[in-house]
Model the fold of this input.
Amino acid sequence: SLSQPEREGMFHRGPGLNLTSGQYTAPIAGYYSFSTTLHIVRREPCRKGQGCRGSRLRVLICVQSRCQHNRNLETVSRLESSGDLFTISVTGTLYLQAGQYASVFVDNTAGSPLTVQSGSDFSAVLLGV
Done:
């Protein structure tokens, strides 16, 4: 059954997604395709002289909040430019046991506060068991 979107632009089918916790819980064991696209704003632009060189932003999709290698999907983006809006995507396949959850993490080494904008998304699709 389809559920009504809670706000404009949202589509939600199936029982696994908890919008409060930001977690997707697998109803059955299997391989799931995960995808997230985050629109991130740096609230404080790079200051002259300090620059942003070497600043990295990691976005991960982790199982059971454990982000060790081979239990996650991740991408790393360098914050080289002085622009304050970044769009970062992560897509891939993870195996989840029934009842395990996956969620999105942002590892900010930029040293300035970041905000995830509305319009960002997180999805999971069961590929097969």
Notes: The two ends are 21 Å apart (CA to CA).
